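Student: Hello, beginner here. Can you help me understand the protein record under this note? Any guidance would be welcome.
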Amino acid sequence: MSSLKFCANLSWMFTELQGFPQRMYAAAAAGFLAVEAAWLYVADINELKEAKRRTGLRVVLINTPPGDIKAGELGLGAVPGRQAEFRRGLESAVMLAKALDCSRIHLMAGRVPLGMDRACIAMEMEATFIDNLKFAADVLSKEGILGLIEPINTRITDPQYFLDTPHQAAAILQKVGRSNMKLQMDIFHWQIMDGNLTQNIQKYFPIIGHVQIAQVPDRNEPDSSGEVNFPYLFDLLETVGYKGYIGCEYKPNSTTEAGLAWLKEYWSNHKRKNAGVPSCPSDP
């Protein structure tokens, strides 16, 4: 089994440094070969490209613009009446992705509009999301970019987010019916909403296009105190043959570098395995 590939999420990691280009240099120095980020739209594109060139990092994932964050927006994909703004945001995301040679875009569904009841507007939001995803799939297919949708938990993180379970996301992807639209599996959100991680990973593996990780419930490093057994899940992802990147979308307990012991251990163990060396002196 080949080892897993991890990328640093620059919206969560290396935030000791203010600018995204500086975080890219720090990620490369820490041993990462790839990075991802939520929104890079405020960063200087030339500085990002230069940091990418000098470090050799791959940029593997960005999000569509969130809309008006100050007004409480977090994506527009499923928000009725905002289709034109979604398309403009998609255009911006594609331009940025092409500039950074990024092959994945998370198409954010967005929140249930303020004052609206989720149950009353759910069907309209789903229909809007499906139409927008079909439009996006056609746009992205011309650029060789994979579109992703991500359930975000509504129990802790965002009570108003429309897309909140892997089952809901899978049903929507089936209705969209496009091969370049996949499921973004964030272990943190999946565990909070549904648990049953082993069966869900196996069931939805054919449509998983990206993975993200963080410990539950505090969203810290995978080896921090919490309810998820990440060594087991890493073995499972290796066993099912996951070849994509795993985004480290967690909040470091202290500095980012100080919290990377789990990753260095993973890398060390796989170097020993590949070299045919036992993982510890007592191994047979």
